[in-house]
Every structure is written in C-alpha cells, then in structure tokens.
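Researcher: Go.
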Amino acid sequence: MDRVGELTTGEINRLISPIVELADKNLMRLSEPSFEFVPEQMRGGITTIHRRLKAELEALLKLVTVYGDLGICRVVASNYPWQNDELSPYQHLRLAWLQLVQLSSMFDHSMTEVDRLHSETLELLSIDVARAVFRGTPRAGGGDRSMRVDRWFAVAPQHEAPTLETLRMASEWSSDAALFASHCSAVRDELLEQIDATVQIVGTSICRFLLDHAAELMDLIGRYNNMLENLHVRHSRP
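Model: Structure:
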C-alpha cells in the first residue's frame, strides 16, 4: 500500500473500531441468540432488529475485508515470477485481473447492501434523523468487466521472427522474448493503475459511509443493547 492507502486504512480503522466494540456485546456472536428472556409477544420484533443490525455489520465488515484484499491483489499483480515458474506471465496477470474483477463486484454488492440495510433499520426502529443526502456510491470499476479477462493477450505482439508467429496461446509465449517481456510489463503497469484506482474508490466510499452514518449506527446498536439489558432485568425479577 502507498501512503494514501495507509492513511485510508487508518481512517477506516478509527471510524469502525467504536462500532465493533459496541456491537461486540450482543451482535458479534456466530450463533443466533434464543431470546428466552424476551416475552413471547416481543420475541419476533427483537429477532428482526437483531438480524437487521447483524446483517448491516456483516456487510460493513465485508467492505473492510474487500479493501484489505485489494492490497493483496496488488501484491499478486506486482510480483513475478512465482516459485519454480509455476505460472506463466499470462497466467499470473490473468489471475490478478480475476481477483480485481471479483473484489470490485463484491464491493458494489456490499456497498449497496449496507446502505439498504441501514435505511431499513432506521425505519424499523423509527429513528428520526436527518440523513445525509445520498450522493450515490461510485462503482469500483475493475476495468471493463464485460471484456474477457485475457484481453491484453487477445492479440499477440507482432514480431518478425517466424517462431513467435506460430505461437497461438499467450500462456505458451516465452518470457525470454524481448518484445513479449516489454508487452507484459506494460500490461502489468496498466493493471496496477486500475487496482490503485479501485483501492482509492473503495477506501473513500467506506470512509464516507462511516462519516455520514457511524453515529446513527452506534445509536441503533446502543438502543438495541439497552432493550436487551432492560428485558434481562425484567426477566430476572422474581
């Protein structure tokens, strides 16, 4: 990660840590609670609130995971050759491109989900807040995902040497060929530029959501925690 990436990571951690700490009490467990201490007529409503808040937290944490995985994607794209030449240059860059496409799709889906779930939970708990005007979430991009993932090698570099002209599969090209090495380097540079642009979009979008809605989410979680605490007290009374 470059300096911008480091700053964004620090900002995300600063903004999300208080949310996770508050949610740890009742929302971070893997299994769903039984709510045996909740009166039967209230159990359905409490369960719905629990599931909505938990789903929003999961979508938010998935966004953070995508951001971290983009850093790994950049490492994969930057480093070649692999040990014992297990992958050809073509296979290596294709793998990194596939990672970028998948992570971009995960970001687009999770960003939409977290905003939808937040709106629904606000409505569910009848929280009267003046929400920030929705400015639209920029899409991660990941290049033109309608194109083939091996688009950079769809047309082999032209060369006068007849031995190169006979090769049809990009994965079979020799990395020792000077022209191919130059082409591969240009492809890697383009891919790294796209990864960096995606990192910037994803990091900025997560920070923007947290800046706009972290206080609301903490208020929702706090109210939920208080409801459960009050119900526990009532249940424990003789």
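Model: The radius of gyration is 24 Å.
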